[in-house]
Design brief:
Elements lengths: L1 H4 L9 H5 L10 E2 L10 E8 L2 E9 L4 E5 L21 H12 L4 E11 L11 H6 L2 E8 L9 H16 L13 H6 L7
Antiparallel strand pairs: 1-5, 2-3, 2-5, 3-4, 5-6
Length: about 200
């Protein structure tokens, strides 16, 4: 931990990660609504392209990918298996959150935890199922500005890349002035590194 706290990103990382001061952020711990404390919450990684959800993949705890889904919740064909989404998942809420955060962007990934805070009183052994389900929360855990494919999904993500680039080819964007961008970057395409 001491080494990580004093080390910046490697040369393979973005310029931003090479210069950001390392640190630690603790995230609230979520678990399943069933109260199984040995498992993490469900996580949905929603990819929006040009402001619209293109695909969502679902992970549950540390069990790996449980499925890839289209915007309408139907399974997307890929090299792995697709488990059916549980009935209690509010799919429209996942799409809404992802598209709100992905609006006005060419590509954006929003990771959403679906579960119950692990310290929640709703996880008590005498709590009825309807009360446990009522305590389920949809919480953004992370966002990314580029897709992160996982092994075995190359064909799927190549299609996403095609859609992403197609938006540029058809002019699906509007150039806006931005006075916050340093003049040096506008003129040279880069900014000298800080010493």
């Amino acid at each position: 931990l001491q080494i990580v706290m004093k080390t910046c990103g490697s040369r393979e990382e973005s310029l931003a990660l090479q210069h950001v001061k390392p640190g630690i952020m603790a995230e609230e711990r979520f678990t399943t609504w069933e109260g199984r404390d040995d498992r993490g919450a469900m996580e949905f990684k929603a990819h929006t392209i040009w402001g619209r959800v293109w695909l969502v993949y679902w992970r549950a705890g540390i069990d790996g990918v449980h499925g890839f889904f289209n915007r309408d919740g139907s399974p997307l064909a890929w090299e792995g298996k697709n488990e059916p989404l549980p009935d209690w998942i509010d799919w429209n809420q996942i799409i809404y959150i992802a598209e709100q955060l992905g609006a006005h962007k060419d590509m954006f990934r929003t990771d959403i935890f679906v579960g119950v805070p692990s310290e929640s009183l709703a996880l008590g052994i005498d709590t009825p199922m309807k009360d446990r389900l009522a305590s389920v929360r949809y919480v953004v855990s992370e966002t990314e500005i580029h897709p992160t494919p996982i092994k075995g999904t190359e064909k799927v993500f190549n299609e996403g890349g095609r859609l992403w680039l197609a938006g540029y080819k058809i002019g699906n964007f509007k150039v806006i002035s931005d006075s916050e961008v340093p003049k040096e970057f506008v003129e040279n395409g880069m900014v000298a590194e800080a010493s």
